[in-house]
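Quick log. Single chain, no ligands specified.
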Amino acid sequence: WNKMEGEKVEALELKGDPKRGADAYEVCGACHLPSGSGRPDGTFPQLAGQHSTVLIKQIADIRAGRRDNPIMYPFAKTLVDPQELADVAAYIETLPIPPNNGRGPGGEHLKRGEELYKVNCVKCHGPNGEGSMKDFFPVLAGQHYAYLLRQIRDIAGGKRRRGRRKRRRPNRPP
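-> predicted structure:
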């Protein structure tokens, strides 16, 4: 899941420069928007406020072919070296998470969603979706509902092979 090798290790050991990263991010902003807020329809995730370690891991995995993302691959390849990868990750981490970004339909399913999150997600992603920089768990707070839904389905269905999947199901109500 998180094999520590190659470019990822190199980039994680470097201090990223957000100012240089802003220049490298310009190509990313076409899809993820200059604010890093992504697209509300979930086609492109919110990157703003994401942990630099998570960004480095994801981009390095895409570049090395360890994460399937054919849309992102040509753009990930534009980063010239581990330093530029560290720089762009440092820049993205400084972008503020947009308020009210990515809200789902809510309604009657919120309580059930909260229960499922507490059982299946909180251990890694935290009680408020803050993730873990040290453990490479992404920030989920503010992420688009449609994007999260697609990722959950892809991980559960085995389509996304770089996600962690733990089969812990709460007792289902009668």
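The mean pLDDT is 87.
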